[in-house]
Amino acid sequence: MGTIEILGRVPLQGNVVIQGSKNAALPILAATILTEDTSYIKNCPRIADVCGMIRLLEEIGCRVRRRSDGIETDSSGVGKKVIRLDSEAVTGMRSSLCLLGALIGKCREVVMEYPGGCVIGARPIDMHIRALEQMGVSFVLENGCLRASTDDLHGAQISLPKVSVGATENVILAAVAAEGETLIRGAAREPEVVALCRFLSACGARIGGIGTDCLTVCGGKKLYGREYTIPADRIVAGTYLFACIGTGGTVFLEKAPCREMEAVIETAVYMGGKIWTSESGMYVQGPVRPFSVPLIRTAPYPGFPTDLQSAALAAETLGDGETVIEETIFENRFRIVGELQKMGACIVQESDRCVRVTGVPYLMGCPVTAAELRGGAALVTAGLMARGKTKVSGCSYIERGYENICRDFRDLGARVVSE
Ligand code: UD1
User: Fold this and answer.
1) 234 lines ligand 1 (CB under 6 A)
2) Among 28, 47, 329, which residue has the most ligand 1 atoms within 8 Å of its CB, making it the best to mutate?
3) Is 118 a catalytic residue?
4) pLDDT at 117 over 60
5) Which end of the chain is more exposed for a tag (fewer CB within 10 A), N or C?
6) Pairing of strands 13-17, 250-254
7) Quick one: angle between helices 22-31 and 165-175, nearest 10?
8) What backbone phi and psi angles, to 5 degrees, belong to 173?
9) Angle at alpha carbon of residue 61, lines to 57 and 65, rounded to 5°
10) What is the strand order of the sheet 206-208 is part of?
């Protein structure tokens, strides 16, 4: 899928089922290599990043089979030899990084290219490295590749200097295979970290403090393959929520994980959305025109997620006043501003971390280009809100995280086609 064409100004109407979470599925698939048998991971989203992770698992020696409602992995063939990962799936996908903790745990040595991912900031990995060093891992750089090795993987007391989902996950993955106890202070509390801990616990790991910022992992327990169902994707649900707010629609987001979306729901309610939540999902009625929330500031969970900042920004372009959006997590997450301005949005970029949006009565469709995953989905949302035709190119980024954004929006009555 290279481009998406949207004929806008149709309020979204209907029902859509929210796919499984990308950010939960990827580390859990990586974690399956720590077991010595078969795991069955249900509700994995059919997205490019999951295909990339499957390719990497196969390279490592895992047998992977797609079944109708999930992915079966058999890790019995993953040896204890040194693993070398230098394929495109590593350089193109940030979450390939969680294989670092899992492979250190399994093989004690791994060589991998510097992981890629969306171009939304510098995205250093210093915290991953420092924490694993505390656990007895040594790192050397060899021709652009990172060689990590240890002959004494042990528990440690780790204080993460800032909240990092990836570093927390990597430490957990190494810690379940390490000798002794690991204490992680300053751990990320994101629901995807919780999902990883629940999966590992089901496999036999002993993890305390799940869902808090202080985790204890009692390492060295033998892990067994298990069946696990990936929770619904709060970011996909939030994207469709803001699309409904921006178009003044009425939708039911089936399976939306409402309990994980409090900050998002609060923002959407401020914007004039009427929202009813239940165990089965979220019913949303959008306003005629969104209200402008004075300040939206991204923050680690349970704050407003950085991954939904672009979707909220797109919806606020039609707000009835002024909104300041502050990005506190990544420094390069306003790449859609220029594209939204082409569509008639009134946005002043005050710094690389802050924009001021003054709502306009309407956007005008035009050709725009996606430069990353969440920004790309937000441009499609803007296209749904705009008069006339919007053509979004660069849509392969969107496939990294959304199973079929065109199908989902068509199910909600939108006029959307992809090429
Ligand atoms: C994960 C999510 C991503 C989400 C992000 C923040 C996955 C696959 N991706 O990314 O969708 O936007 O969490 O919720 O789960 N940092 C350092 N040094 C490090 C590691 C991180 O300085 O070693 C910084 C980052 O540059 C960033 C902040 O810490 O400013 C948070 O990053 P982190 O939580 O690690 O993001 P990811 O795990 O890459």
Assistant:
1) no
2) 329
3) yes
4) no
5) C
6) parallel
7) 20
8) -65, -40
9) 60
10) 157-159, 181-185, 214-218, 206-208
Distance from the CA of 167 to the center of ligand 1, in angstroms?
8
Which one from 107, 118, 244, 258 is the annotated catalytic residue? Answer: 118
User: How distant, in Å, are the alpha carbons of 26, 196, 239, 294, 352 from that of 326?
Assistant: 28, 29, 18, 11, 9
pLDDT value, residue 80: 66
Neighbours of 288 (CB within 10 A): 8
Q: Which of 2-11, 89-98, 362-371, 383-392 has the lowest mean pLDDT?
A: 89-98
DSSP string across 70-114: EEEEEGGG--SSPEEE-SHHHHT-GGGGHHHHHHHHHHSEEEEEP
User: CB count, 10 Å around CB of 274?
Assistant: 12
Residues recorded for the chain: 419
Lookup result for tokens 């859990």: 28
306 C-beta neighbours (distance < 10 Å), count: 19
Stated as kind and residue range, the H or E segment containing 338 is helix 337-342
Cis peptide before 302 (omega within 30 of 0): yes
Take residue 171 and report the two structure tokens written for it.
């430490």
For tokens 């501003």, name the residue.
337
Mean pLDDT value across residues 2-16: 96
